[in-house]
Amino acid sequence: THPRLGQPLELECLTHKEDSGAFWIHQDKDRNLHFIVFISSLSRSTFNRNEKTSTRFEARKDGRFYRLVVKSFKTQDEGNYFCLVNSNQVLYFSSGQPAFFPVTTTAAPATLAPTTHHNITEKDPCPRTPDTGTNKGKETDFFCNIFIWVPLSAACLLLLLALAVTIALCQR
């Protein structure tokens, strides 16, 4: 359906593999990325600032579907919505779900409806934005790097700690 001012808009993301949760990210008209929510595989939602609920969004898991509801769609909610699924320590990005109000012209009204993509694509793990002389592309790369390098660094630190404990115990 077309998003209507003040009306709810539901987006969904279908997973095909066993996963450990999904993130919903909003890319606004200026191509800035905004974290909305993380939904665990047990259907527990964590919104911005570690909140369990949101006044603007609802999130839930229904079987293999991760759903995001914009409770009352407003101009600030226009943009592209991405679902990111963590499956077997690999992060998969959806192709994006555009949600914009219909554009009307004086010649003939154009109807642009948001499309809903149900599948996770495995082609490119990080969305790319064209670099128009700004740092937007680098910001997207930095965003992807956070989701890849932080968990990897934490795992390496944990392995190093386990190795140190093992060596200390074997020395006794």
Automatic annotation (TrEMBL):
Transmembrane segments: 146-170
Primary localisation category: membrane
Membrane topology type: Single-pass type I membrane protein
Pfam families: V-set
Gene Ontology CC, one term: external side of plasma membrane
GO biological process terms held by the UniProt record: cell surface receptor signaling pathway; cytotoxic T cell differentiation; T cell mediated immunity
Cellular location(s): Cell membrane
UniProt protein name: CD8A protein
Domain Ig-like: 1-94
Keywords, ordered alphabetically: Adaptive immunity, Cell membrane, Disulfide bond, Glycoprotein, Immunity, Immunoglobulin domain, Lipoprotein, Membrane, Palmitate, Signal, Transmembrane, Transmembrane helix
